[in-house]
């Protein structure tokens, strides 16, 4: 991990933000958790952190076999929760509601073209059972990996739930990833089956998912025996006899009842690949019981679910937010959720607000990048729609700048609705730091305080807790929690090293006898005088582009796989809408391209990266140079490149560079 960087540019302004917004009295009057209840929960958790979670697990999850041991820390940091209990995620999300909420809508779906479909809990249960039986008929069993590469749709949720029902481990790959990224994930997971669709709708175009699957499976994926294809866009697709099956044909003959496979709490529920600072994306592995517990209770606490709510988390199921707050959390709580397939600006900039109006959305949870984009399009768009049913707003995935927060509060929240800014990660499984909307004031740009049962700290370069209330440093989580990742699929050493390696010498056994280690989040943070947290950004070489995690090394490898590229270095630069944009410095084989040649090669390289990884990774800027700035020991000076990308004055000492003359060229001068 590189040296921690001081907060720069836009983030500095966050640290001067002083405004606080207490929850409105109307909200407090009806909230599930008020300030007094929050204090009581915190006290319970502090008195007995493991017992706190055990109690919640008994209360909020249905167990086939109750657990007797809440936490096994004997192999820390490979913690295990509720080890001798047996449960099933799909039973928790579906079966347990059939008696009381069978006819309640579980999903309200709207496609980009305006098609609407409502699924009741009973209908969803039946379809999940049919697909689960279909998977079994194809020989898929407990522990097998199934890759899901689908549009954002009820069927994607059904696919995830069907896997969970039979104990198969799903790995959802975001539909925006390229065939080559898909192939890497299929191979790494050792998947036996892929569930996809012919295509999905995005901004009026068909995203050709089946075509990408065919390309991905064309080499190196021999373990994949079957591909199930949901028909969505109905264009002609390639077909491999004996391997490919239509979803509707497979399900037509299956029973709508499927006995669940009761799995041990530690049984992997899913793998989700995410970017790190080195090497290829890693398969973050989550365990059934612990993951489901945090997804369930954080949904209840943070979103303050009431039975009448229509909850809309706009995240695609391809990301962790779409796992915890689309596929699992809302269903586990029996709430009604909204799923919208397409782009926020189709057919116009009012689409999100029209959906809120038409479907009676009460809770709206999205990413700052979407808020900033919608903000730019003007207040007249939300003004056209009746947003009066909204009662709670949320933000996730990246720091939200105070300006966007205030706009969200004023224009969408009518200065009345609470905003919850939730900090968490693919690895944490569920929200970790967030306001409870009826219990505490919010501050624009701060994710506030750790949730009950979650213990975070701010530490210095040596991993030592900074004693003062006001502190800036590394964000660490100091106590294991149920939904923490269990390992990196197939690479436990990487798990231990990445998350617990930096401060490995700081381990202790606490007063309850729990073995504690510091989980290093990879973010830098500021804690203010009120104990509120302000996330300043990543401390490693991971970018956050539109709320999506991207490793700079992944983009660099994609660039150097192009025949013209000799060397590349990728950094982030602040971007008004995306938060961060990808800036690539490229050294070509042969002479440095200039003028038109440079423009056309830059375009080609963007497309190349899009093909290698996916559209989200396409560099916004490509700058060609004869060389990269290197120290005499051959290290690329990334800090210097970051300053150049931001267009800042160079204050670093460049005299130690092997090639100081290169700086002006890198600056485009
Ligand atoms: O840097 C933090 C940022 O997103 C990273 C995690 O990315 P990912 O695993 O893709 O999960 C995103 C959705 C949970 C974090 O290390 N991040 C996430 N939420 C926030 C945030 N930064 C600031 N504020 C947040 N609310």
> What gap, in angstroms, lies between the N and C termini?
32 Å
Bound molecules: adenosine-5'-monophosphate-propyl ester
The gross shape turns out to be: globular
In terms of structural class, how would the helical and strand content be classed? alpha/beta
Rg over alpha carbons = 24 Å
Q: What is the spatial order of strands in the main beta sheet?
A: 12-11-8-6-7-14-15-23
**Helix share bin:** 25-40%
Q: What amount of the residues lies in strands?
A: 15-25%
Total of helices: 21
Q: Segments where pLDDT lies below 50 for 5+ residues?
A: 5-10
Mean pLDDT, as a whole number? 95
Main beta sheet strand tally, sense and closure: 8 strands, mixed
> How many DSSP-defined strands?
32
Task: Explain this structure.
It is a single chain. Helix content is 32%, strand content 22%. Residues 5-10 have low confidence and may be disordered. The longest helix has 18 residues, at 595-612. By secondary structure, the chain is of the alpha/beta class. The protein is globular. It starts with 8 loop residues before the first helix and ends with a helix. It contains 21 helices and 32 strands. The strands form 9 sheets. It has an 8-stranded mixed beta sheet with strand order 12-11-8-6-7-14-15-23, sandwiched between helices. Strands 5-4-17-16-18-19-20 form a 7-stranded mixed beta sheet, with helices on both faces. Adenosine-5'-monophosphate-propyl ester binds at residues 274, 320-321, 396-399, 421-426, 447, 521-523, 535, 538, 544, 549.
